[in-house]
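Handout, page 2. Input:
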Amino acid sequence: MKKIFKTVPAAAAVILLSLPALHAGMKVTPVADVSLFGGKYFLDSDAASFQGRLDAFVSPALTLGEGHDLIPVYSGNYSGTQDVQELAGGGVLTRKRQTHTFSLKYIYTREFDKYKPRFSYSKASIKETNDEDWGDGLFDYSTLSLGFEAEQERPHGTFTESYDFYKVAYPNYSTLLSQSASVINDTTTFNQLSTNAGENPMDNTSHRLAFAYSWFPEPLNMKAGYDFTYRTYPDQALTARPVTGASPFQSDTRWDVMQNFSLKASRALKPLFFSAGARLGWMSSNQGSYDSSRNKYMEDYYSYVDFAISPAVGIALKNGMQFNFNLDWRRVFYIERLKQGVSGDYGTDKIDQTYWLTSISARYPVANRFFARAAYNYQLSSSNMRYEESFRYNYRASTYLMGLEWEF
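Output:
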């Protein structure tokens, strides 16, 4: 993966340097958007220090000829503000994050049909503590993606089908057991514990199929979609039911199946723009969990059903000022994961969790291609789960950001 990470930006540089040598009829349309913010993060009323955030998007879109377009893209993000991220099956408080993504898409247009092969590579670095060095984060990961999309525009609407392959690697996340051969002196005990135990349990590969249909019943724009993802963890063995003298791991490995049904409607009513979306999701996993401290085994530990709605409204004034308000609500019902009390004792009810995210932003033009921006986000997570030694289930978090945006 390191070789790929070095190769992708080099390939992008070759493309840019080769532009003069391409066909004289080629057209280049550069697009860029860079935002620099300063802001503060609050978690349960505890404030972090004032930190910065940088977002960048650069794309020298190329029209190679009639019906042929090539779109290279670089997008990057640095966030110095704290945030609660859903990682490894629960909410983890991160201090700093940065992500860099390189992608390349080719678009072939034939009358009313489009075909779009694509490739991307991204690398994310995550700090859980301020004294952690970049590149050493437990949850650092890289993602390689290959995909293809087809689009057919018809008088009654537009059909879209796509397939994507993802390979995700966590270079710093490995099982403690895989590093314990020199610690566990009893060879028999080590062999018993380590049988079928993998070394890189978070690494995974995914296959995703998606289908969408867009239509335009005046005055609305409508879009319905369905996606299916099959994800495997080749080095994550299934947790076995505890049996004396047997390995705690099965020979089979973990797989997840995710499905989502979505519907979105939008309407422009100048100067207002309204939209509302709804999604029903289901995730099924064959992975279980065993809590050795309380001798509790649970099947389908990661399986859940969730439902989400997301209304939004925007306003664009004649002086160039823009306001946006977004609300995201999500409810998760775990199928077999039992709730726990503050001390860790298990109850009989399954865990449920509710997320609220409110976002308000404003943008005002201050000079040629420069905009002043401000944003405020408030997130609330509530659950009947009270045991939070490993992950956060109940918290209130808010962030405010102010800064400049340059658009080209």
